[in-house]
Amino acid sequence: MDSTVVVVGSLNADLVFSADRMPAPGETVAGTGFAVHPGGKGANQAVAAARLGASVRLVGSVGDDAHGRLLLASATAAGVDVSSVRTVDGVPTGVAGITVDAEGENSIVIVPGANALLGRDEVAEAAAPPSAAFAGAAAVCLCLEVPQAAVLAAARAGRAAGAAVILNLSPYAGIPAELVACVDVLLVNAQEAGQLLGQDGLGAEPQDWELVRAGVAHLGFGPAIVTLGPRGGVVLGREGIAQIESLRVDAVDTTGAGDGFAGALAARLAAGDGLEDAARYACVAAALATMRHGAQPSYPDADEVRARLPREAGAGDGAAARSSCQ
């Protein structure tokens, strides 16, 4: 096994509208800017991990159009192996319409396009020779912006390769028990964790986290991480709970920060870090990403992250234990 990260997920062109504030329902507001950036949770996570020095392979689908070419060029420039990204004729590349306000907060609408055509057979093709995309992988990073059949197939391929399977349960959806059984690390934000557990106001009080850990375990998951934006995150390990402080920065755009966290987490787990240390590193990487506009253009390199890591970083709580995936 090497330190390779395999990301299976979406590639979207981000159509970013800037405005002083978000429009209310039925309201039109004047914008302050517009840009097209490479995005999509899968592509973002792959680029974030590659910028941090990981060897990364990306599995996904794009259309044969300008947006698809933009996405492939961006990932390739970051050092991502895109040989397992299919180009599909007659179908547009996925797009995301993103509005960013003056505080850096965003709202997003996604049209999946070619991402919807990534299925079990396409993942199986990527896993088989000559591509053998999962061979030697140390971590497999997944999200739910592609069909669940593809996610489950990728999780199984990752488990068969002996990799740690990380599921970013975003955008939130219910998942089958067979996928839960394949997940080594669950990654959610507070809203997604609340949806998963049927709770509102998750994480408002410190004592909530033991209940969250118990709830996540009851659903069949092992270790989990809940990200809290500017408040950092919480690692719900098998042996205990660790709160991770966020780096204080002047945020200008939070688009893709969660994907930056996921990519950094995968990169550090693949490199052999324990879950707590990997989460601490990922918190710094995600915070630095909010200081620049766009998703992929904002991701830091390893030197930038190392320079801002807390000096007291510990050994963490060890690598995630493997689950049984049938």
Describe this structure in words.
Helix 3 packs parallel to helix 4 (148-160) and helix 8 (257-270) runs antiparallel to helix 9. Helix 2 (66-77) links the parallel strand 4 and strand 5. The chain has helices at residues 41-51, 66-77, 120-127, 148-160, 177-180, 190-197, 208-218, 257-270, 275-289, 302-308, and strands spanning 4-8, 12-19, 31-39, 56-63, 81-88, 94-100, 106-111, 137-142, 164-168, 185-189, 224-227, 233-236, 241-244. The longest helix has 15 residues, at 275-289. With 326 residues, it is α/β, with parallel strands linked by helices. The strands form 2 sheets. The chain has a 9-stranded mixed β-sheet, with helices on both faces. It is globular, with a radius of gyration of 18 Å. Helix content is 32%, strand content 24%. It has a single domain (4-12, 39-95, 112-308), classed as UDP-N-acetylmuramoyl-L-alanine:D-glutamate ligase (3-Layer(aba) Sandwich), CATH 3.40.1190.20. The chain has 10 helices and 13 strands.
